[in-house]
Amino acid sequence: MKLHTKLTLFNTLSKLVIVVLFVMLIPLLTRKINQSFIDNRLLKQKDKVMQVIDSLGIRYYMPDDSSYGSYTMLKEEYIALDRYSSPVQLDTIANERRMVERDTIEYRILSHTFKAGNKDYLLEIGKSVSTIGETSSPLQSIALQVLLGMVLLTIVADFSYANYILQPLDRIIRAKLLGKRFPLVGTYPRIKTSTYDFKYLDESIHEMISHIEQAFQKEREFISNASHELMTPVSILQNKIENLFDREDITDDVQMQLIAMQKTLNRLKSIAQTLLLISQIENDQFIREDTIQVEEILKEVYEEIAIRMQDKNLGFTLDVPPDTKLVNVNRFLLFNLFFNLVNNAIKYNVPNGAIRITGSMVHGKFQLAFTDTGKGIPAEQIPLIFDRFKKFRQSSPQESFGLGLPIVKSIAGFHNILIKVESETGKGTTFTLTFPSELLPA
Amino acid sequence: MLTTDTTTMNVLIVEDERSLAREVETFLKKLFYTCEIAFTGNEASEKIAVNLYDFILLDLGLPDYDGLDLLSEAKKHNPEAACIILTARGSIQDRVKGLDLGADDYLPKPFSLLELQSRMQAIARRKFDLHSPLIALGEFSLDLTRRILSHHGTEITTITRKEFDLVSYLVLHKNRTLTRMQLNEHIWGSLITDDYDSNYIDAHIKNIRKKLGVFGNTDWLETVRGVGYRIRIGQG
């Protein structure tokens, strides 16, 4: 789940919990508020009655010493005065039931005892509480609706704000991490954000990238320098052997030794040259501005390599739309890429096997599949076949040093070509190249 | 143009790696070229300003001089000279720049001396207008300029580009045994693969003999047991 979805979801849930809690608390709250309101009123009324009694005497209410009582029309309120004989003095407010003209009604009742003219009296003022409960349930539903509306509004607001505030993260990932190939060319503008955390992330990524970049740079320089430094002595040795070979006074035996030396030297030379090529590709030292006709270049590859197929009596099928062109590529490199793939297909093929190259447009992209009828590659080895100096398929009759597929990988990477490997042991392997749409003519 | 005779051509070898320069000199002297060596850029600069050369073999990676500057100087003082760039710093940019500045060819180190020789001959044919006559190979004749192999005037069309290259390389180095490695390097040289022992020269030679055998005798194409191949011309 996306971070901003998670944040919004959490916000929504927490708000909903609060709303539900609040709505559930409404009856309790209204009762509390009402009660304190009623109590206040009762106290005021008591004060008023006591004032009247103080100034006009108890006779005002009780002219003949019999009890006094009065209530409002709907019996919502009543007031009662009576003689009181218990020694316990009262001054309380409590909920009690009273019979008023055959109706039993729950009242909030203030009871107050006082002395007037040496006699004890009890004053009761009551107010009906039955109406209080009636108000709380409509209040609950209104509050629920209003609050849910508000929650909905905040969800929208939260979602868009979360979206907005998390945008730099997306930008950082897209600009700094996705689809980055080393070496990186050009500079990296800082992502604009006022969020400290993202700045921190951006800076950390920068730091990491520059470390990686340095490590890559060092490796490339090392390979490049090492290969160059190797080339000079190899060059001297090669020419010395050639000149020696040409001398009249050497015996057949020495001649054989010289040939053996030449072979060994050739091996050293090949490795150095291949490493140099890979480092040059990875150093972006090639120009991508050639336009090639795919079928034509594959025919050339075939011509170059036909002798090797003949050696194993392999069948060859080339099925590429004749007008397919690739632009912005390096011809030399693509030739080497195709050559190495076909060479690979020959090397690991069985005698009398076959090789097929098929080109097709798939979802607007050009795909080129190299299929062989060879031994196949066990699934667990497929991720490793592009590693330098890895040799798995030992039964190969030719000697090689395991740089054929690394060359393929470097060249493909240089052109943003995707390589897919499918293999079935004993049946064969298919290498599928997917060319990005920018390599197709507009 | 100084001369049209290959045997008296003047070559300046500009190479700071002394033993390499000596090997190139030894090889070219055997082919009757007249050689001078400059071990430093300054030395080369002086020689270029004073003397006239037919060939300047130029190492770009000189410690005291920018090889490309030297190339410009050569073009100025020795406009007729053919310049071949020899370099271990074989970056593509250098190559493009070098050829832009008028170098005639470019040979990355390490190179075979035979390859150097064939490049020099190719340039000589092109630049000094040395029309090589038809070369007779038994009943066959080879036209290096037009790249045609024919039998009694009939062009042999079955021969592939690679096979022609192989024959002409052997002809260029006639009467000399070329090892499989040397032939291999010539015809597969620009390809970078990971086989160091792949050798299809024998298969190529077999094909050539089969294709030409239909027309006539191919005894001139000799197998030297355990070593390689040789084309014999003019010595019976």
Per CATH, what is the topology of the largest domain in chain A?
Heat Shock Protein 90
- Give the structural class of chain B: alpha/beta
Low-confidence stretches of chain A: none
What's the multimeric state? heterodimer
Would you state the CATH class of the largest domain in chain B? Alpha Beta
Strand order of the largest sheet of chain B: 2-1-3-4-5
Approximate shape of chain B: elongated
What is the class of the largest domain in chain A in the CATH system?
Alpha Beta
How many domains in all of chain A?
3
Tell me the span between the first and last alpha carbons of chain B.
35 Å
Describe this structure as you would to a colleague.
- The complex is a heterodimer of chains A (442) and B (236).
- Chain A has helices at residues 3-56, 130-177, 196-245, 252-282, 294-312, 331-347, 404-414; strands spanning 68-71, 77-83, 91-100, 103-116, 119-128, 290-293, 315-319, 325-329, 354-362, 365-372, 418-424, 428-435.
- The mean pLDDT of chain A is 85.
- Chain A is of the alpha+beta class and 442 residues long.
- In chain A, the strands form three sheets. In chain A, strands 1-2-5-4-3 form a five-stranded antiparallel beta sheet, with helices on one face. A five-stranded mixed beta sheet of chain A has the order 7-9-10-12-11, with helices on one face.
- Chain A folds into three domains: 3-134, no CATH class; 196-282, Helix Hairpins; 290-439, Heat Shock Protein 90 (2-Layer Sandwich).
- In chain A, a hairpin with a 2-residue loop joins β4 (103-116) and β5.
- In chain A, 52% of the residues lie in helices and 21% in strands.
- In chain A, α3 packs antiparallel against α4 (252-282) and α4 (252-282) runs parallel beside α7.
- Chain B is α/β, with parallel strands linked by helices.
- Chain B folds into two domains: 6-127, Rossmann fold (3-Layer(aba) Sandwich); 135-231, Arc Repressor Mutant, subunit A (Orthogonal Bundle), CATH 1.10.10.
- Chain B is 39% helix and 20% strand.
- Chain B has helices at residues 18-30, 41-50, 67-77, 92-100, 113-127, 161-172, 180-188, 201-213; strands spanning 10-14, 34-38, 55-59, 82-87, 105-108, 135-137, 140-143, 148-151, 154-155, 178-179, 221-224, 228-231.
- Chain B has a five-stranded parallel beta sheet with strand order 2-1-3-4-5, with helices on both faces.
- In chain B, a hairpin with a 4-residue loop joins β7 and β8.
- Chain B starts with 9 loop residues before the first strand and ends in a 5-residue tail after the last strand.
- Mean pLDDT of chain B is 85; it is low at 1-5.
- At the A-B interface, α3, α4, α5 and α6 of A face α1, α4, α7 and α8 of B.
